[in-house]
């Protein structure tokens, strides 16, 4: 069966999203990013307290993130991943080498100045420019390699996550299940960006810090030598005193930042969630602007926005406190670090045991070592932000894992989908529809629908009609039994609120098909048939049609799509609720006359729709799930008494009033 569901293109698990040329280059050769199967579900010990279970879940999130993220370097990841990685490491090594050469140059130039050796000073001045140019060139190359690697890793992982998100309608199913996956669009756009940018910055930073520390500790040990102090008449010798001082200084600074910023991760994560909630609130106002304006709900919406924004400000205030405390340490450290080696070397210099060049070289090396050791001090806030973002994107991955496991039959039962036996267009065999926790919504439904049959699903609100229709369309996967379609049958679903994509009206009319698949004449003819003649001249106009069209116009537009796609099975879920009685009659008569062989399944409350259906089933809400209580054969009427009565009424009212 081919499904053409309104507002829901259904890519298979192997479908790759349309991407630009650079994104194409980070996709595996078989056409899609490869990700390991979802990890097995980890069931917590029931004896643990809820707080302990939550702590274990959070600690697992980083592991879950790396299970997917490391695939970038896998056999079927980005073909240039290791090229960028190795290239970046080589550039860092070369940069440290140039840094060492500049450190040696620093010693030589000050020794030349101290000796008033003009020739040496001029020579070293000439040597400095190639060193400076080399350092700048390596720095630029390192930025290119680092940011190129970040860009490609983000593209690869984004494509993998979005493909899983859109597959099998999971982006819709996430709204139906519990879990920590609120605002998935923010997590994919922002959290995933930070989660892929920061680790590469950390890799480059840690590698450079380690190499710099190792290189310049040797310099400090060699230049500084041992320091002898007289305490209480005894001589105390400290070998490599500059190295000892650098290590002690770094331990004090790093230890201080760890103590002061121990809650940075928690505060940063809560700030990100508050920002996501605020953005979602603003998006909701924009998307529902017409309804809010018609109801005059601006004041209430402003209250909601203010409340959400107050939460953002509170989290920012907490984060600002964390930043101020860490800045106190980092700023103080950056001011004191250059002075410490000068004070430590001053006694030896004054005694003539060190030259001015050696003092300046030692000061430069001490600062480099201190910067390397203090890398954590400078990057702890970013590390905390990455931790929070990686956990949020991992939470989304875990929710997708759950849906993916459910699709394979792990845990909650799944509704099977197959092909019908014989000529039946659609059969529901012992169909039970449940929530993701196993709670029954519709129980044990048996229905056989023949080709061309028009079935009306009725019942009180909350009886499970729309849920049953979603199960038929494949949107609702949980339950048992089977939904079977005739081989090669194409299904098209019209929801109560049709989706109108961005772009031209021509694209909106042909969605989810390509606008080029139909001629302008065919599109205009479809618009004419559904009563949208006033839009025919605007089909090439790019406008915010989702905000421009009324609810009734959107539903008429959905019927125009139906006429263009001409499916075998049509599912109408309150698809005429925004139309008046006459408009509803016109749309239903249009469908039945234009697509006489199509099988129609309708969900509606209006009794008038019975005239356009040949059969009616009624669901009744009961304990343990809604039950199919009646299955009635209907006799469609060519003309409706209600319409005839209205016509006669108008004619009667048009006659002149006579004497009584």
Automatic annotation (TrEMBL):
Belongs to the ABC transporter superfamily. Keywords: ATP-binding, Membrane, Nucleotide-binding, Transmembrane, Transmembrane helix, Transport. InterPro entries: AAA+_ATPase, ABC1_TM_dom, ABC1_TM_sf, ABC_transporter-like_ATP-bd, ABC_transporter-like_CS, ABC_transporter_sub-D, P-loop_NTPase. SMART domains: AAA. It is a multi-pass membrane protein. PANTHER family: ATP-BINDING CASSETTE, SUB-FAMILY D MEMBER, LYSOSOMAL COBALAMIN TRANSPORTER ABCD4. Residues 1-45 are annotated as: Disordered. One of its GO terms (cellular component) is plasma membrane. Its main location: membrane. CDD domains: ABCD_peroxisomal_ALDP. This is ABC transporter related. Pfam families: ABC_membrane_2, ABC_tran. The chain crosses the membrane at residues 80-102, 122-145, 202-224, 236-261. It is found in: Cell membrane. It comes from the Bacteria. GO terms for molecular function: ABC-type transporter activity; ATP binding; ATP hydrolysis activity. Residues 86-385 form the ABC transmembrane type-1 domain. Residues 426-647 form the ABC transporter domain.
């Amino acid at each position: 069966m081919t499904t053409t569901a309104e507002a829901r293109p259904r890519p298979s698990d192997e479908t790759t999203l349309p991407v630009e040329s650079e994104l194409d280059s980070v996709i595996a050769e078989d056409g899609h990013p490869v990700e390991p199967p979802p990890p097995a579900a980890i069931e917590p010990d029931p004896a643990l307290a809820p707080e302990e279970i939550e702590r274990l879940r959070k600690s697992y999130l980083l592991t879950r993130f790396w299970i997917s993220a490391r695939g970038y370097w896998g056999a079927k990841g980005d073909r240039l991943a290791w090229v960028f990685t190795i290239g970046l490491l080589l550039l860092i090594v070369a940069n440290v080498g140039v840094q060492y050469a500049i450190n040696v140059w620093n010693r030589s130039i000050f020794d030349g100045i101290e000796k008033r050796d003009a020739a040496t000073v001029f020579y070293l001045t000439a040597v400095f420019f190639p060193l400076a140019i080399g350092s700048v060139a390596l720095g630029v190359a390192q930025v290119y390699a680092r940011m190129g690697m970040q860009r490609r890793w983000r593209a690869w992982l984004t494509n993998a996550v979005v493909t899983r998100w859109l597959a099998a309608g999971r982006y819709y199913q996430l709204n139906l299940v519990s879990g920590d996956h609120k605002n998935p669009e923010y997590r994919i756009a922002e959290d995933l960006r930070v989660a892929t940018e920061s680790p590469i910055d950390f890799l480059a930073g840690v590698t450079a810090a380690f190499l710099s520390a190792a290189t310049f500790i040797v310099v400090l040990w060699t230049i500084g030598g041992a320091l002898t102090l007289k305490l209480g008449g005894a001589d105390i010798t400290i070998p490599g005193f500059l190295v000892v001082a650098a290590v002690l200084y770094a331990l004090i600074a790093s230890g201080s930042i760890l103590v002061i910023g121990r809650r940075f991760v928690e505060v940063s994560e809560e700030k990100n969630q508050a920002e996501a909630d605020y953005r979602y609130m603003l998006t909701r106002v924009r998307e529902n602007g017409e309804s809010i304006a018609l109801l005059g709900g601006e004041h209430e919406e402003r209250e909601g926005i203010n409340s959400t924004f107050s939460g953002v400000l509170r989290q920012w205030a907490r984060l600002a406190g964390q930043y101020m405390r860490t800045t106190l340490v980092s700023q103080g450290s950056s001011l004191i670090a250059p002075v410490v080696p000068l004070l430590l070397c001053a006694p030896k210099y004054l005694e003539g045991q060190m030259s001015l060049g050696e003092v300046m070289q030692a000061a430069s090396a001490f600062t480099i070592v201190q910067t390397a050791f203090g890398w954590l001090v400078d990057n702890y806030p970013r590390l905390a932000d990455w931790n929070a973002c990686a956990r949020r994107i991992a939470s989304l991955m875990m929710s997708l894992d759950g849906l993916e496991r459910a699709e394979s039959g792990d845990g909650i039962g799944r509704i099977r989908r197959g092909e019908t036996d014989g000529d039946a267009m659609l059969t529901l065999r012992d169909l039970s529809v449940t929530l993701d926790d196993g709670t029954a919504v519709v129980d044990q439904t048996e229905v056989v629908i023949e080709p061309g049959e028009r079935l009306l699903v009725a019942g009180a609100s909350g009886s499970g009609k729309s849920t049953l229709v979603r199960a038929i369309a494949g949107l609702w996967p949980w339950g048992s039994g089977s939904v079977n379609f005739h081989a090669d049958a194409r299904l098209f679903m019209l929801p109560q609120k049709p989706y109108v994509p961005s772009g031209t009206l021509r694209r909106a009319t042909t969605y989810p098909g390509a606008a080029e698949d139909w001629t302008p004449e065919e599109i205009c003819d479809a618009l004419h048939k559904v009563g949208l003649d006033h839009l025919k001249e605007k089909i090439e106009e790019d406008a915010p049609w989702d905000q421009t069209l009324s609810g009734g116009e959107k539903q008429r537009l959905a019927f125009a799509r139906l006429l263009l796609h001409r499916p075998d099975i049509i599912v109408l879920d309150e698809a005429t609720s925004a139309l008046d009685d006459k408009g509803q009659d016109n749309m239903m008569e249009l469908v039945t006359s234009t697509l006489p062989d199509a099988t129609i399944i309708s969900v509606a409350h209006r009794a008038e729709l019975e005239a356009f259906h040949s059969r009616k089933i009624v669901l009744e809400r009961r304990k343990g799930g809604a039950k199919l209580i009646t299955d009635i054969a209907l006799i469609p009427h060519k003309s409706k008494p209600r319409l005839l009565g209205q016509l006669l009424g108008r004619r009667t009212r048009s006659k002149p009033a006579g004497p009584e």
